[in-house]
């Protein structure tokens, strides 16, 4: 396909601007927005985008588990489709753009092709994926893994939403959805029917702001080694009466493990490793903690991420060995609890080259960078679907009400993506 005319790009940007405004108004939950997984806000967002897709004369459908599918038909319906999209849920009181930007921009690209009078050779499939934010249900990439039949079959009946305590199946039933495909391990989308998958997304860190760039091409998505429910268990005792040699201080043991991990991280980083480590929760038992008591229980979480799967495996083994060593020295037991691991995902080199070439043609400056956050794109890449991500600049970080996305940067993203997607569509 030849270049898409400027008026078509302008129509795409106008649609994106309108949709972002409508999403913000419909899902406002001051001080931010809330679109809970399989909740009212997520459903409201899907309804807004489905209406916009119908206005563009796209084919609109929702599958059994709630994935929104919006299709610009190609001339040859037998060809594998080019898919785009992201998730529509958010964290509580989050921002308007995390996830939603990928679905909105996918629709905007369909609008640009319509405005240019193009009917591509193959379908453009825009996906509004359910339940990516694992703050609601403790499972990574829940919606995209369910789409491909990759969730544990018991998930509908064992996964409970953290704010309600109700099961995934219960929340699906609220919206007339059917968990049967998950229970059967049945895929609702065949990876072989996808020519490529592209996920536009806001950057969730400060790199593009620091570099003064509107967009970045993602090289890969870091895998994660996560222990959200870890515990160190010792014994409660008097803070003043027990000598060090007799203490079983869970807090000190947990802190020692975190300090050892930090030192290990510094060593590996100095050796050039791609690695980030976080202890997001460090909490003594609120029923017992006080300034005059030795803590007998520490709850903590660990989140370790890298592009290197072998490094994550090595660090997991080191972590358990170090916990055993510290525990033996301090009379404390460590229980890491159930893990929620996700494999690293590399982005397709051919798609990355296509995005880079179109950025040069559009005069849009870009950089290449890894994604520290997880994304549904990793599920597609893990199944062998050629996959790519384009980050858009976001001045205020993510998962907070101050998420920001300048429409000029959306325009820059469209200037790269529209011709790239048009080329993929044939």
UniProtKB/TrEMBL annotation:
GO terms for molecular function: hydrolase activity. Keywords: Hydrolase, Manganese, Metal-binding. Pfam families: Peptidase_M20. Its cofactor is Mn(2+). InterPro entries: Amidase_Cbmase (IPR010158), Bact_exopeptidase_dim_dom (IPR036264), Peptidase_M20 (IPR002933). It comes from the Bacteria. The keyword Hydrolase applies. PANTHER family: ALLANTOATE DEIMINASE-RELATED. Homodimer. Belongs to the peptidase M20 family. This is Zn-dependent hydrolase.
């Amino acid at each position: 396909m030849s270049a898409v005319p400027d008026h078509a790009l302008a129509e795409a940007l106008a649609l994106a601007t309108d949709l972002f405004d409508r999403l913000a108004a419909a899902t406002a939950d001051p001080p931010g927005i809330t679109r809970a997984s399989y909740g009212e806000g997520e459903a409201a967002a899907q309804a807004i985008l489905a209406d916009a897709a119908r206005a563009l004369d796209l084919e609109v459908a929702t599958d059994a588990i709630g994935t929104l599918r919006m299709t610009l038909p190609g001339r040859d319906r037998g060809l594998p489709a080019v898919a785009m999209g992201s998730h529509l849920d958010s964290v509580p009181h989050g921002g308007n753009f995390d996830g939603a930007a990928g679905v909105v921009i996918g629709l905007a690209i369909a609008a640009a092709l319509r405005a240019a009078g193009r009917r591509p050779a193959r379908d453009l499939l825009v996906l509004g994926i359910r339940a990516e934010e694992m703050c609601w249900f403790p499972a990574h990439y829940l919606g995209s893994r369910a789409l491909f039949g990759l969730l544990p079959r018991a998930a509908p009946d064992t996964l409970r939403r953290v704010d309600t305590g109700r099961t995934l199946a219960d929340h699906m039933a609220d919206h007339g959805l059917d968990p049967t495909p998950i229970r059967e391990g049945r895929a609702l989308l065949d990876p072989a029917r996808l020519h490529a998958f592209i996920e536009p997304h806001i950057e969730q860190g400060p790199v593009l702001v620091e570099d003064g760039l509107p967009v970045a091409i993602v090289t890969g998505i870091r895998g994660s080694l996560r222990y959200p429910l870890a515990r160190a268990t010792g014994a409660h005792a008097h803070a003043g009466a027990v000598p060090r040699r007799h203490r079983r201080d869970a807090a000190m043991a947990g802190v020692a493990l975190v300090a050892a991990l930090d030192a290990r991280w510094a060593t590996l980083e100095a050796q050039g490793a791609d690695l980030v480590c976080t202890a997001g929760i460090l909490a003594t038992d609120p029923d017992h903690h006080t300034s005059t008591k030795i803590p007998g229980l520490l709850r903590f979480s660990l989140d370790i991420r890298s592009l290197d799967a072998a490094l994550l495996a090595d660090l997991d083994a080191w972590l358990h060995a170090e916990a055993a060593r510290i525990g033996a020295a301090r009379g404390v037991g460590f229980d890491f609890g159930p893990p929620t691991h996700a494999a690293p995902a590399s982005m397709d080199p051919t798609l990355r080259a296509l995005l880079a070439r179109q950025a040069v043609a559009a005069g849009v400056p870009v950089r290449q960078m890894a994604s520290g956050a997880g994304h549904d794109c990793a599920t597609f890449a893990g199944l062998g679907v050629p996959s790519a991500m384009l980050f858009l600049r976001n001045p205020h970080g993510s998962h907070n009400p101050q998420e920001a996305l300048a429409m000029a940067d959306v325009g820059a993203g469209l200037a790269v993506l529209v011709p790239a997607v048009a080329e993929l569509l044939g």
